[in-house]
Amino acid sequence: MASVLEDPSLERHFKGHKGAVTCADFSPNNNQLVTGSADTNLMIWNLNPKAKALRFVGHRDAITSVQFSPCGDLVVSASIDKTVRLWTPRFNGESTVFKAHMAPVRSVSFSHNGQRLVTASDDKSLKVWSVHRQRFLYSLSQHTNWVRCARFSPDGRLIVSCGDDKTVRLWDTNTRQCINTFTDCGGAVTFVDFNGSGTCIASTGSNNTLKIWDIRTNKLLQHYQVHSAGINCFSFHPSNNYLISASSDNTVKILDLLEGRLIYTLHGHKGPVLAVMFSRRGDVFASGGTDSEVLLWRTNFDVFNYKEVLKGHRRRLNPDPSPHVNDIYPRSPHLHTAPSSSIQISPTVADTQSADPHIVEMGPVLFPNTQQDRHGHGSEAPRGGASGGSGQASVEEEGHTHSRTYALEERSGLPRGFSTTLEHIVQQLDVLTQTVAVLEERLSLTEDKLKECLDNQARIIVQAQRVEEQAAENESEGSSA
């Protein structure tokens, strides 16, 4: 069992975004932190207090997901503007744009070898892309509602996804088929990820719960209900012994997965917390929320040497080691509620190291100030197109984004007859979306086959020319003899 050394502490805060901070990730060398925001900008913060921060401009709507590549030389971002951008942080804010989906892109993630990207979208599909060739590879399309999140497994053989259809799905990247579906989610699922060993997945959603499954046995291992509002994001500690979660109840909570209990509640943000992420070493973690601030926390509470723990995992000879969370007792799935003994931390010092860093603008400025003032700081437009005549709309009040559900008639203000017609149109558009995804995949395969045929034809021509030249030489030698 883990033991407590010291409470987590707030080390720094970063101010520079003008809208809600929606996502965050640390660089592999732990020197930088990238964040995305509803203000459409991507920020890269240097953890050296004296270094400058970089603001990257390019997206035309709120950024929903960011991630460093495994080598740290690229940053990928997804946006409500239906695009994905690959940024090169070291060069002038240049980016490559993928016109990824026909609806807002909610998630983007690198494979662990950095060669693939997986994107998830409101068009109900996942798409896999080649990073090196910068092209679309194939689609995965069995979700029946908006897809909120998708992640590769550590070995790259699986993809896990979740969405508003209240399911978590596992996909085989070789066969491109859905091999398992978890339906015991209790509501729309907003975030999902693998643990470090790839043997477990965790998911969170609108019903305020966090669940952890063993994907080898399909059994629910742990079920936490420690937040009082929806959970927006979570992150596994590199040792797999801890998990942090971010919620719309304005708190960050830290769970001890070995003991199966809540150990800390952090109250650093002034509104809903949308993003949270451990660093690669686990010694610090970051959180971001609707208050536009990014907070950097010192972990402090784990006595293990993280590098030694990770080395021990890699030295295991068993190809399917038991997950850490399976060591809890009792072994049957059970609900974890917030005990009164958990430690509440409300930091009063906003920043213990430095003033706000100087920010360097990178890339073209796409929006004048008047446009930002008119539309707010990257606030999300109402979303429609959900199945069954209902959907969600986003309402921004005093800088905080709240989610409400409306009937189609209430959203559109149209009579029921018109609403029925619109529902039929939406269904037809769904069919069209699926058809286009299939055509894209077939076009990609056809292109590869055509290239292979052209290569074979070129080789045949070269061989024929060589045969003709050899025949001519033989004929010349025969005539001279």
Would you mind describing this structure in some detail?
With 481 residues, the chain is α+β, with helices and mostly antiparallel strands. 18% of the residues lie in helices and 38% in strands. It is built from 4 helices and 33 strands. The chain has helices spanning 306-315, 369-375, 408-412, 416-480; strands at 9-15, 21-26, 32-37, 42-46, 53-56, 63-68, 75-79, 84-87, 95-98, 105-110, 116-121, 126-130, 135-140, 147-152, 158-163, 168-172, 177-182, 189-194, 200-205, 210-214, 219-225, 231-236, 242-247, 252-256, 261-266, 273-278, 284-289, 293-298, 335-337, 343-345, 359-362, 390-397, 400-407. Strands 2-3-4-5-31 form a 5-stranded mixed beta sheet, with no helix packed on it. A 5-stranded mixed beta sheet has the order 18-19-20-21-29, with no helix packed on it. It has a 5-stranded mixed beta sheet with strand order 22-23-24-25-30, with no helix packed on it. β23 and β24 form a beta hairpin. The longest helix is centred in the last third of the chain and has 65 residues, at 416-480. Mean pLDDT is 79; it is low at 1-5, 321-331, 348-354 and 365-412.
Would you tell me the structural class of the helices and strands? alpha+beta
Roughly how many Å apart are the termini?
Answer: 92 Å
In this structure, how is the largest beta sheet organized? 5 strands, mixed
User: How many E-type strands?
Assistant: 33
Proportion of residues in helical segments: 10-25%
Shape: globular
Strand order across the largest sheet: 2-3-4-5-31
Mean of residue pLDDT? Answer: 79
Cα-based radius of gyration, to the nearest Å: 25 Å
Low-confidence stretches: 1-5, 321-331, 348-354, 365-412
How many helices?
A: 4
